[in-house]
Amino acid sequence: MDRIVRNAAYSRPGKTAERDDRIGQESRNKIYHNVSGMNRDKGGKNMEKMKKILVVEDEFVTASEIRARLTDMGFEVPAAVDTGLDAIRMAEELKPDIIVMDITLKGKMNGIEAAEQIQARFDIPVVFLTAHSDDATVEKAVKAEPFGYLIKPLEGRALKTTIQMALYKSKTEQEIKKRDAILFAVSSAVEWLLRISRSDSHAPDKIGDIDNADIQDILGPIGLAVEACSMGIFTIQPGPDGSSTVSMKYEWIGSECHRNECIPELKLFTFSSIGVSHWYGLLSKGEFIPLTITGIPETEKTLLNLLHAKSGAIIPIFIRDTLWGFIGFFDITEKIRSADEIEALRITANLLGAAMGYR
Fold first, then answer.
1. Are 127 and 219 in the same domain?
2. CA–CA distance, 352 with 354 (Å, rounded to integer)
3. Are 203 and 359 in contact (CB under 8 A)?
4. 180 and 129 within one domain
5. How many domains in the chain?
6. What is the value of pTM for the model shown?
7. For residue 154, what is the DSSP state?
8. Which of 82-86, 131-135, 268-272 has the lowest mean pLDDT?
């Protein structure tokens, strides 16, 4: 029974004899070392957008000066506020990449208290700004775990360097958190597969059948870890005339997404009917298919439009070396998926194929 677990991580059509026991550590290592590929397109170009910074400063002249300097440095500064409550409100509304926050603010809430709430609720890094560098002030600020500390009057180079270092530290921490979440989600999927492989009562009744509750348990952690809007599993049914029909069989959706599995157009359609006749050949070869609404011809956008998505990533599912269908991430914004996210999707596809082919 453990054979299906050993076969899951690297299944490809026609490769059954070459599969081995690498589902555990090697798959996890592959994800672990792919972090450096995040936020880059296929040509290796940096895809990062202009960083957004919120300024929180109770002195108008100082706030205007900081805002002007940051803008000259190439940052977007959509707002400057002067109270802790406004800082929390704007953090939720604007979702900035970083906040430059004076410790002394108007109102009852100081910058340290505001920073603690912002980091707890929104996980946004804060750089403190103050005219005081005494030990007591620094000690209070340190407890709020800021990503940097600036002393007034500001020196331009110190401002830029501190912001850049804070952004780098924040990015690194976020990538580590995402990697760990993906590793945990994949591990959970492996554990699920082990359970059904050792219990006939949980095994699918026939090839291609998995209980919807089990599907949600598998897709949910993966979808949340990669911050996908939705995930879909589609079946491919060969017809007597050589054509194939495609249907959405399972779906997981995030909190901001539409449920799509009941849409009639997602049942019994053909690849040619949605303008992607070439997909069958790509999927049969085990190819990954990336999708972005601005990166594909107008004639190939039907599936994304039906799913209310702007981008997607599709991986084939094989059962006993035969193409059964495909699984995909779908997003309401354009995203270039990183190598570790794609690897997680591929492992999920192979786990599902192994489970559905088990008797």
1. no
2. 5
3. yes
4. no
5. 2
6. 0.68
7. P
8. 131-135
